[in-house]
Amino acid sequence: MFSNILPSIRKTGSYNITNMNKIKTLNKEIIQLKNNQRNIKYPKGKAIYIIKKVINNKKYYKIGYTKDLNKRLKVYNTGTPNKQLYKYFCLIKDASIDKCIKKYMRNKEFIKNKEYYVANMKQIIKIINNCDKRITELCCGYCMKCKKLKDITYHKCKYTY
Ligand SMILES: [Zn+2]
Hints:
The structure is a single chain. The protein has 161 residues and is of the alpha+beta class. The chain has one domain (41-154). It contains 5 helices and 5 strands. The protein has helices spanning 5-12, 17-37, 69-76, 97-106, 121-131, and strands at residues 47-55, 58-66, 88-91, 137-140, 146-148. A hairpin with a 2-residue loop joins strand 1 (47-55) and strand 2. The relative contact order is 0.14. The structure holds zinc ion. The site of zinc ion has 6 residues, from loops.
């Protein structure tokens, strides 16, 4: 496919949108393949995590609680060809946030596989804030950098697209 790009630009002076979309798709695949090969170890301890899913071009986020980020991720990745990583995570001290999150999630949109997803990050941050005011930061599950809650969605990560 790449071999078509230069001749096409030479011929027409531009490159069409369909092909640009193909390049975007290929880039995503390359990033996914690179992430499949990474062996990420998340820090130990109780944590909340956020997983992002794209279904029919729509973004969904799930927020959950675990005592072991690495073990939980293994469960998520059983039987899937592409490795799922946490979008964000945060180590916590007080596990009572688990009940609080579940309470909020019960009221949110859910999709076919019966796992619950809130629609966007703004809602997620609101839930975290309402459940535990002491949580002020989230860390990127791809590069481990931590940012203030209000800044986390602006984080541009070199491991994601
Ligand atoms: Zn990152």
